[in-house]
Structures are given as C-alpha cells and as structure tokens.
Amino acid sequence: MPSTAMNAAVSIQRVSKRFGRVQALDGVCLEIGAGEFFGLLGPNGAGKTTLISCLAGLTRPDSGKVSVKGFDVQDDYRQARRQLGVVPQELVFDPFFTVRETLRIQSGYFGLRGNDDWIDEILENLDLTAKAETNMRHLSGGMKRRVLVAQALVHRPPVIVLDEPTAGVDVELRQGLWQFVRRLNGEGHTVILTTHYLEEAEALCARIAMLKQGRVVALDSTRHLLERFSVHKLSLRVEAADRLPEAVTRRASFSEGYLNVLLGGVEEVEPLLAAIRQAGCPIRDMRMNTTDLEDVFIEVMSGQDAARPEAAR
Amino acid sequence: MSGFRTLLYKEVLRFWKVAFQTVAAPVLTALLYLLIFAHVLENRIEINNLRYTAFLVPGLVMMSVLQNAFANSSSSLIQAKVTGSIIFVLLPPISYGEFFLAYVGAAVLRGAMVGLGVLAVTACFAPLQFVAPWWIFAFALAGGAIMGSLGLIAGVWADKFDQLSAFQNFLILPLTMLSGVFYSIHSLPPFWQKASHLNPFFYLIDGLRYGFFGVSDVSPFISLAVSAAAFLAVGVGALRLLRSGYKLRY
C-alpha cells in the first residue's frame, strides 16, 4: 500500500549515497507533485543520474527513503516500478530485436500483453512507424534514442523520467519529442527532466531543482528562480564618457567601447538615462539583456548566491 | 509471472535468432568429435560391452548440453552488462527469482536443443538404445540447470568478456573434457579415478549414459543425488547473488 501522501508523485527523503570516496548524494530531499513538469539540473557529477538511479531502484541509497506514487522503491519495488518509466542517458539497445519486438518484450516485462494499439500510437508519435520492423542495430543514433523513449512509455507510467533525452538529437526530433512529452504531461503524467540544454528546462519545467556535489542548492519554481536572480544588463555606447557622473561610473564597467551597468529592474533604466543625458553624454547605441536560466545556473553553481532550497513541496 | 514468461521468451528468441551460432555450430563440433574419434578408435576399443562410437554419443550429448547451457546464460548476461541493455531487465518489476528461472530456463532449453541436435546427427553412426528414458531426461535437465545457474553466476561476476572466457576455458572446458566423455574412468589410474569422482560433470555424463544403455560406472541414484546437490549449491549461490544485486544494482 502507498505509504505517503498520494498527491506526491515522487518523494525523496534525506537520501545519501557514497561511491568510495565520492559522496554522490548528500541528504537530498525532494517532493515532486503529481502532474508536475520538473527539472533536475546540475553540472556533470552533481548526482543527477545517481538520484534517478535511486528512484529507479538501480542504485540502493546508503540512507534515506525514495518512493514513487507512495510506493517505496525498495520495499514495494514491484508497484513502484510500475509507476515509473525511465529514459536512460546512455544510448543502449538490444541488438537482437526489431523495434516492435523490443517494445513488445518491454510491455511483457510489465505484464502487458496485446499492447500493440498503444505501441502503434507511441511509434506514430515518435515518428518510428516506418522503422517498426527494423532491427535496432540498423537505426541511427537519433532513432535509437526515440526507441528508448518508447520503451519507457510502453506501460503508460504515471511518472516519466527523462535523463538527458535530447543529447545528440537533431532539432526536428527534439521538437517532436517535446511536443509528445508535453502532451503526456498535459494528460496528467508527471515528468522529471534532466538536461544540459537549459533553454529546454526553462521552456518546459514549471519547477527546478539544482544539484551540486550531491546536494540540492536551489529548489523553486522556474519563474521564481528567474525573478530571484533577475539582473538586467544595460549596455550603452556613449560619447564624452569622461563627463559621466560618479553615481553612474561607480556601478558600471567598460568593455569593447560599451558602458555596462547591472540594474535590479527596468524601473532603474530611466533615472540612469536621465543622469547620463544631464551630464551631456550623447547615447549612440543601447542594448538590454535579461536573465535566463543559464545565468541563474551559473550564479547558483558559482556558489556566491545560492538559492537555498525552500521547504520541499 | 508474466515478467518471467517474457524474459524466458526473450532469452529463447535471443539465441534462436542466431541459431547457426548457438545451435548448429555446437552440433557440428560434436559430430566432428564423433567422426574423428570413431575413425581412430572404433575397432580398437570396447567399453562395458559397447562399441566405442555408441559409448561416445551420450558423452557428446551431455558435453554439448553442459557447454551450451553455460554459454547461454553467461554470454547473454555479460553482453547485456557490457552494452548496458541490462537496464531493460532491471527497471521492470521482475523479481530475482523470476530472473533466475528465466535465465536458467532458457539455458536448459538451449542445452536440450543442442543435445537433441547432437543426438539426431550422431545416432546415424552408432546403434543407440533408450533403456531408461526418464534417466536421460533427468540428467539432461540437471546438467542444463546446473550449467545455466553457473553461467548466471559467471555472467554476473564477470565485468568483461575476457574474464568470462577464462571461466569457460580454464574451468568449464577441462571439467567437461575430463569427466568421462571420451573414456570410462575405469581405464584411468586409481588416483585419477578418485579425482574424477570429485568432478560433478562425471556423474551427469555417467548418469546419462545409464539412461541410454543401462550400464554406468556408478549407480544412477548416486549420480542423481550428486547432481541435485550440485544444482542446489550453484542455484542457491546464483539466487543469493541476484538478491544482493551484486554487480547489477549498486
């Protein structure tokens, strides 16, 4: 029987894991709600894949508890695994079988027979129908990646984990894949995504956790993260810069002929421009950059201003 | 048990898709052994009132069963581990017991298929009897199960093909070759006769031979008891490895 709140799709409580001298996970706590599109970000070696492996039962934590839809992944592993579909990071495949055989076999592992209607639908959505009877060995890397996604979905898991699913995948597939995953998320599936493409995470994930050296160093909604680290950089090409008032130069830097000023918000733009005009410095060019997730990521990983994880939901 | 059924089906389909390599090739190897040894020894040796070729056939059948049952589970596992495709079996809700039964079951089936193939092609060259078919079935099953389990242990333990090859060439091959496939242990010096009794494969081959001709070096009941004990030992060992997740789940 499920042991925790049913509205939590995934519950990770104080999970630690050490491999030799490396502390891969260090007391990680996370709760991911049902139906969320959740991003798990971090540099290489941060512990993302270890955390996913703990979730999938491939790695046994040294301490802590992990459950999927309330089912403990160790004590109630059969139920927990039925709830979970994992797209592994590595491009792995069984070279003996065709695409359809692979998907039928994977269905059978979950006790599903006569699953061909759903298999056909997945093949269609992943643009694999024409390759259904092709041996896995003869597929391109991108095609193999699609089959990995299909394998994770054959048993219609409520929770889908995508561990860098678009690594080395062309733009067309990436778009098609996200369209399909978005649809699944819209139908109520919880999606957990790890990716190095931060623009993907920003566009897709409603909430994001950032891992660093096995610890959660940021956990918040994507919007809040962007707001919290919101910095506007105004770059100006001005004439007679030597006449600029100290109030402006104190907060500015010069590079490649531009005066760069970091602003807390757009409301600071007008007073700044007024001060420059008043000093008699004509403005010849102006550029404005806003914060994206990559800036947040770099900021958090630099450790200077880590967004402490708020109470795990 | 659907996970078990599918895994068994997948393992059988895996070796059947490359049947030339996994079934036909060992049958041909056994046939070549028979032709060469029979050509050299047929008119020179008679064992237990049997023509040498007839004596040789059950030994070749059992040797083929043993080697191929071992090869099936061990090669499937090491290949899945090395390529990473083992993850497809580790992610679904398959218990370690189902895992064991499926891999050993497929190994037994491949061993039986090769054994039947060897029997079919060698039967043309030797007058065979089937005095006690149930003994034949029991020892073929025991041999396949023991070696399927041992192959599973080897496949889990080995990290690379080289290690598995060492296991196969330095342990399995000598034990099968020196188990009385090609000779009766009564023809050996006393020390080697005693040494042969420590080799569990000897009991499998001797027991199978009893099933064909009703004559054997030791009682088939003793052989069956030793074989059952050997299966219990390797089976429990394999199950404990799988339950612990050794080299599979970290």
How would you describe the overall organization of this protein?
The complex is a heterodimer of chains A (313) and B (250). Chain A is α/β, with parallel strands linked by helices and 313 residues long. Chain A starts with 7 loop residues before the first strand and ends in an 11-residue tail after the last helix. Chain A has helices at residues 48-56, 77-82, 99-109, 116-125, 141-153, 171-186, 198-204, 222-228, 246-249, 269-278, 293-302; strands at residues 8-19, 22-33, 37-41, 63-68, 71-72, 84-87, 159-163, 190-194, 207-212, 215-221, 232-238, 252-255, 258-263, 283-289. Chain A folds into 3 domains: 1-83 and 157-230 and 292-313, 3-Layer(aba) Sandwich (Rossmann fold), CATH 3.40.50.300; 94-152, no CATH class; 231-290, Alpha-Beta Plaits, CATH 3.30.70. In chain A, 33% of the residues lie in helices and 28% in strands. By secondary structure, chain B is mainly α. Chain B has one domain. Chain B has 10 helices and 2 strands. In chain B, strands 1-2 form a two-stranded antiparallel ribbon. The longest helix of chain B is centred in the N-terminal third of the chain and has 32 residues, at 52-83. Chain B is globular and about 60 Å long. The mean pLDDT of chain B is 91. Classes of the chains: A alpha/beta (313), B mainly alpha (250). Chains A and B meet through helix 2 and helix 3 of A and helix 1 and helix 4 of B.
Short description:
Chain A has 313 residues and is of the alpha/beta class.
Question: In the residues of chain A, how many domains can be counted?
Answer: 3
Q: N- to C-terminal separation of chain A?
A: 22 Å
How many domains in all of chain B? 1
**What are the secondary-structure elements of chain B, in order, as H or E?**
HHEEHHHHHHHH
Largest sheet of chain A: 6 strands, mixed
What characteristic shape of chain B results from the CA principal axes?
Answer: globular
Helix share bin of chain A = 25-40%
Please tally the helical runs of chain A, counting DSSP H or I stretches of 4 or more residues.
11
* Oligomer designation: heterodimer
Structural class of chain B: mainly alpha
CATH architecture of the largest domain in chain A: 3-Layer(aba) Sandwich
Q: Segments of chain B where pLDDT lies below 50 for 5+ residues?
A: none
**Low-pLDDT sequence parts of chain A:** 304-313
Label the structural class of chain A: alpha/beta
Annotation field: number of helices of chain B: 10
Greatest chain-chain interface? A-B, 33 and 27 residues
